[in-house]
């Protein structure tokens, strides 16, 4: 089972890292379909998120596509709420209900990016309301902490729809958002002594996503076509989310 999961996690990290995402929603969907313990799922997905996006954040910052003022505006409320969401005691049934909703919502957002976002349009930005986007980031942070998803999959379409920044800067902001919220989620689990880390299980998966993430970060978007990533993974996430809600 671990070998199959390693291959899938490697592919997810390879594809997502090129678009500035960590792949947490897909990691959770895969682990849920493999019936992995829910606490182990959350810890493993968050650790994999951190492993993938840490390099991406550095890459976006060095290339000038991570406006730090906006990054902190989006994260100021989300980080403590991600910690609080992760710290909240959730029964297994409640967790899977929330996760099913979160994955289904993530699939909808990915379909929006696939079918309705026009990448060829000239980028005209609007004057942004930092307080409003900070509150939106806070809501996403709370959901990410409760479910183990970094939150970038929700944040990026909101920022693009609101013309908050350029496409490359939105990818950089999403990477930063995923990184800080994933760390906050892990700290929340640690505070209630709920981190479950099995070296024989999570170790190979972390290695797979680190390798996949490094390769993906260096591949041109022309090779991977982010829209293909959205189409391929939206089906998996939607299937896993609907299956959990039905159960």
UniProtKB/TrEMBL annotation:
What is the first-listed, main subcellular location in coarse terms? Answer: membrane
* Native species: Chitinophaga flava
**Coiled-coil boundaries:** none
> What does the UniProt entry say about where the protein is found?
Cell membrane; Membrane
Q: Where are the transmembrane segments?
A: 44-61, 73-90, 96-115, 135-157, 169-188, 195-216, 228-246
Q: Which superkingdom does the taxonomy of this entry point to? A: Bacteria
Q: Which Pfam families match?
A: TauE
Q: How does it sit in the membrane?
A: Multi-pass membrane protein
Keyword RNA-binding attached: no
Family of the protein in this entry = Belongs to the 4-toluene sulfonate uptake permease (TSUP) (TC 2.A.102) family.
GO CC terms for this protein? plasma membrane
Alphabetized, the UniProt keywords read: Cell membrane, Membrane, Transmembrane, Transmembrane helix
Q: What InterPro entries would the database entry show?
A: TM_pro_TauE-like, TSUP/Inactive_protease-like
Q: What is this protein called?
A: Probable membrane transporter protein
